[in-house]
Amino acid sequence: MNLERIPDLSSAPNLEKINLRWCSNLRELPSSPQHLKKLTLLNVDYCKNLRSLPSFYKATSPTNLDLGGCSNLCSFPEIMGTMESLRHLVLSGTALKELPSSIGNLIGLEHLNMNNCKNLVCLPDSFCKLKSLERFYLKGCSRLEIFPEIMDTMEWLYELDLSGTTLKELPSSIGNLIGLQNLALQNCENLVCLPDSFYKLKSLEGFYLKGCSRLEIFPEIRHHGEFEVS
Length: 230
Prior knowledge:
InterPro entries: Leu-rich_rpt, LRR_dom_sf, RPS4B/Roq1-like_LRR. The protein is mostly beta strands. The chain is built from no helices and twelve strands. The strands form two sheets. A ten-stranded parallel beta sheet has the order 1-2-4-6-7-8-9-10-11-12, with no helix packed on it. The chain has a two-stranded parallel ribbon with strand order 3-5.
């Protein structure tokens, strides 16, 4: 499609879904999302010329926000106040270098996909505030060297994929992911060690390390059940 911009939508307060996927010429979104109080779906994936987003406010209520494949999207806006409604956020294949610290305001977020964000270099410490998060995908984020400290327990996160990152180690606070069931670290070629706190991951069932060619130290496992290492 040749659509480059969409008009101001403040006069359409009952709008529930916006699907603009593959609008490759779209450069911007309207600056009035706070008026769309009934919006549940915003899909702009593969809008490859989209470079920025308007700020998100508490009054905005999408449950699904899909920005996958927006390869020129360099920044994610500040989240102005807590947002409980957003459940699924897809940022895979974007040009993001970081997330704002206010990402912790997405207190209802369950699924965060950042696969193949090749420019991503860090994650904010506020990551641990995402108490509802269940699945977090960072596969192929080849410039991500550091995973943030997890300053509080996260009991609902059960799947974490860090495959193909450049992590050298995991934080000792990884043990605060008390509900983690699957941890993927495949092809993390810079990974050299795992923290002793690894044994605190009592719920772990699958642990994937194939291709971690520099891993020299594996911690003692004091595990009450069984899990798969591959």
